[in-house]
Amino acid sequence: MTGQPLIEMRGLSKVFRRDSVEIRVLNDIDLQVHEGDFISLMGPSGSGKTTLLNIIAGIDKPTGGELRVLDADLLSMSEDALATWRNHHVGFVFQHFNLIPVLTASGNVELPLLLTSLSRQQRRDHVVTALKLVGLSDRADHYPRQLSGGQEQRVAIARAIVTDPTFVLADEPTGDLDAESAEEVLKVLAGLNQEFKKTIILVTHDPRAAAYASICHHLDKGRLVRQ
Asked: Residue 128 sits in a domain of what CATH number?
């Protein structure tokens, strides 16, 4: 890839301290992510995958090293500035869906738009488009309890992309799904990457999920290895 990377890490480290015990979760991470990349981060539980994703999203901060995301120095930003930055640039997909049970699919997808200045009609148009992109136009008025696990996760993806974020961070998005539902979700992510050039970083322990990415990295005891 050429051009300025969207995300650049150099010598990144993360250390947690519990009393006198020091736990090194990430160690000397070098990583570049360019626009349109679909990257998977693989590794066993406790290898630092989610911590790395949270650092990219500005949810957590590294202990050492350099980090620039969209040419911004996240380490120097206040919490309020980080929150605003995330709302503009980051779409997050979680393992456990995190849908609001009393809201319909449309209502769940609309939630991030309530923080914007869009009109009600504009929000509705965005929601319709997002649900169409994940293949759930016919489930707009269904509540989470009326959806399968795979459909719930696709609603969660629609919610993540409804603001047209710069990149999507997916943390074990197929971890709670059966094989068929997992494949549906991964095809949606792959489609967003291939058709709309959406930059995606996928955390997974499943080689079948990682195979959908064009670039695979492996985290082993806090160190990043290109596969």
From this structure: 3.40.50.300
